[in-house]
Amino acid sequence: MARESLIGRMNRKVFGYLASRFPPTPWADLTRRTVETVQRQVPRSHAEKYELKTIWYWYPLYCLGGIAFVAFIILTITGILLGFYYIPDGTIQFTRGGGVTSAAYNSMNFIMNDVPFGFMIRGLHHWSAHVMIAAVFLHMMRVYFTGTYKKPRELNWLLGVVLLFVTLGFGYTGYVLPANDLSRAAATIGINMTKASPGPVFLGQFLTQLVFGETDPTGFYIIRMYWLHVFILPLVGTLLMILHMALVWIQGVGEPH
Amino acid sequence: MEPQVVKQGVFEGKPGFPREYGPERTDYQPGVPFWPHEVYRDLVIIFILTAIIFFLAAAYTPIVGPSANPAIQPYSVPDWYLLFSWGLLKIADIFPTGKIPDGIGGTITVDAAFWGDILTAVPVIPLFILPFIDRGRETRPAKAPVRTAGGMYGLALIFFSSLYAANDRIIASWPFFVDDTLKWAILIPPILVGLATYIGIRRLGFRDMYWWLVVTMGAAFTLTVVSVLWSFGLGPWGADGIDPVTRLLGGWSSPLAFFLLLILVYMGVLFFATVALREKKAKEVVAVATVIGFFGAAAAMKYFASVNYAGSYYALQQITFNANFLVALPVFGLIAFYLGTRTPYSTYEYLLNECYQCGKCHTVCPVTKVEDDALGGLNLVYNTFKKQHDGVPLWTCLACDACSAVCPLDIKYSDYILEERSKVSAQRTAADGGRYLH
Predict the structure, then answer these.
(1) The total number of structural domains that make up chain B
(2) A101 has a chain B CB within 8 A of its CB
(3) For residue B23, what are the CA distances in angstroms to B26, B108, B392?
(4) Is B93 inside any structural domain?
(5) Whether residue B357 sits in one domain with residue B338
(6) Are residues B119 and B222 in the same domain?
């Protein structure tokens, strides 16, 4: 039997001496064992359970809902920050030079020019909104083409359709807020379409008055859109999103196979 | 040791080998840990997404633009996700307008905004009733041709109605387009996209698409003939009073006549190849016709532009005017022909993916009753599919199709086995210096 090398014997002696007096606690292993207990593990998916050969390039399509949610988180944070500076007053004012402005428009310029990193916060809000809407569209396309809306997930599909309209509502009420020319054009279209609601004339008038607060876009619509954008839609949307994700958690992801 | 005992010890509980008797299994495997495995994966996506958004915010900062001014009505289009609604609102002026009584003494004003509301609201209805009308069990897009084709139709519809929202911009930059052409583009191309998708998806599921192609190509050819005749005689070209026959016979030097005949001949070749030729020959003919037609059209355009500039300009104008048929139909014909005749061998694995290892095929397989390897638990289908074989199962298979007969998912295993064999034998023939069989 070959003798152990000198260095090996020395190591064994030194570390053995230390280990017998200061026995090491396997913190890393203990931690891993703790966090890998059954209760803290993600259940095996259908594909994993039955060892299905799934189509790998479908998997990125399955994080689109998550991307929309992450964008929503960024939107919430930047929206809270923007809310400290934005003034929801679209009343037309005349400048000394004969130009036209409004308190909302001035506050937008204040955010873009004077608030430290204000342009960045608004940019994040703007682009996150685009990312979120794109992700929601693609998420819906994925669910449609993979037929994931079928039994037992009908209710979640309906929730998703409502959430799509909530997201589009977020987008519309959001880009009306800056009180610039695009805002006015969009408000004009929205008011005209609401006024033309199928049904009796007073219905369209009533709905326009309800949603926009006026039947001609003079600037009062800003406060209505603002309150929809920062309170009503976030409340409804967040509740529906929680329900949407709870149903995914309960029913499982409709996997590719 | 007995092979049966070895099989139980080694393969019990494995895919295809369900537990037969004994105590309940306790080695329950719940899956991957949420922390840190799943969280790390999610964090990567979140960080990349956040980085992209930060980059966009820093590099493409949204400007505020001029203030809202009641005195000025600016030209502006909504954000891209509402373009489809804006396009539908714009197209709504094709519908009749007027006033109708609402039954309680007043009147409803039916105008473009009214129809725009209707057009925007109607597509919402299928979204809500979708889970209740599509009740089949197929979830794969390739197994549900109607759903997939409908989805592609919807996407094309959204695309073209969004395109129409910028109709004045398009006409300003490409004056050949007229408003009516863009309006019809909301109707015609989405149907062609849906039809081509349906043909392609059915073919992907190994259906014979001959009659579908015959009908489709026949309809496309007929439509092309009608469009060409319309351009010759009934269209704006005939407004100058020259009768179509004179135009046709005397117009050989005319670029318009040349291009219309080129399109007509190309669609005729597609139709003829579909109906009369065998599949392989038809593919070759169509490929040659496409190359000749494309480069011939480009060369002819170059030539006519040098000798008869006004004529070629006029030809381009007339063809663009009828682009929904004269341009979209040849493109559609080519794509539909390719999708309907292509050989979907590469999709065998895609179809075999449905296997969930119930083991029925193994139970009925006659080879496993006599082959020593098979008695030890060799599952021909499963191992061949997983490519965990040394080549033996591929060649011991009798192709008796008993496995496909009992397969709950109706997977055609023997087709796959035969295809694999033909591939291997073709490679061997090629290696031997013979002609490659495919």
Answers:
(1) 4
(2) yes
(3) 9, 75, 35
(4) yes
(5) no
(6) no
Q: Are residues B195 and B225 in the same domain?
A: no
- Write down the pLDDT at residue B257: 81
Q: pLDDT, tens digit, for every residue of A30-74?
A: 777 766 665 556 666 666 666 666 666 777 888 899 999 999 999
| Co-location of B318 and B199 in the same domain | no
Q: Which of B207, B230, B260 is the last residue of a domain?
A: B207
A61-251 CATH fold = Cytochrome Bc1 Complex; Chain C (1.20.810)
In whole angstroms, what separates CA B351 from the centre of its chain? 18
List the single residue in A119, A184, A201 with the smallest CB-CB distance to B106. A201
Q: What is the pLDDT of residues A90-133, one digit of tens each?
A: 898 888 888 899 999 999 999 999 999 999 999 999 999 999 99
Measure CA of the first residue to CA of the last residue in chain B; give whole Å.
Answer: 47
Q: Which residues sit opposite B91 in a β-bridge?
A: none
B65 and A178 within 8 Å at the Cβ level: the answer is yes
Could you tell me if A257 and A46 are in contact, meaning their C-beta atoms sit under 8 angstroms apart?
yes
Query: Which positions ≥6 away from B248 have C-beta within 8 Å?
Result: B232, B257
* Per-residue CA distances from B336 to A1, A42, A82, B346 (Å): 77, 44, 51, 19
Query: What Å distances lie between residue B122 and B94, B128, B141, B337, CA to CA?
Result: 17, 11, 24, 33
Domain annotation covers residue B15: no
In a domain, B23, yes or no: no
Q: Is residue B134 part of a domain?
A: yes
Residue B373: give the domain boundaries.
353-431
Mean pLDDT of A205-233: 92
Sign, CA dihedral A125-A127-A130-A135, equals: negative
Q: Delimit the domains of chain A by residue range.
A: 61-251
For residue A131, list chain B residues with Cβ-Cβ distance below 8 A: 49, 52-53
Claim to verify: residue B88 and residue B202 sit in the same structural domain? yes
List Cα–Cα distances, A150 to A158, A251, B10, in angstroms. 11, 12, 38
Q: How far is A17 from chain B (nearest CA, A)?
A: 35
- CB-nearest partner of B42 from A66, A179, A199: A66
Compare CB distances from A67 to B49, B86, B128 and report the shortest one's residue. B49
Q: How far is B372 from chain A (nearest CA, A)?
A: 26
pLDDT value, residue A45? 66
Angle at Cα B139 formed by Cα B133 and Cα B141, nearest 5°?
100
Tell whether B231 and B268 lie within a shared domain: yes
Model pTM?
0.80
Query: Which residues, other chains included, contact A254 with Cβ-Cβ below 8 Å and sequence gap of 6+?
Result: A143, A146, A147, A148, A153, B139
Are residues B118 and B46 part of one domain?
no
Kindly list the residues from chain A whose CB atom is less than 8 angstroms away from the CB atom of residue B384. Answer: none
pLDDT at B370 over 80: no
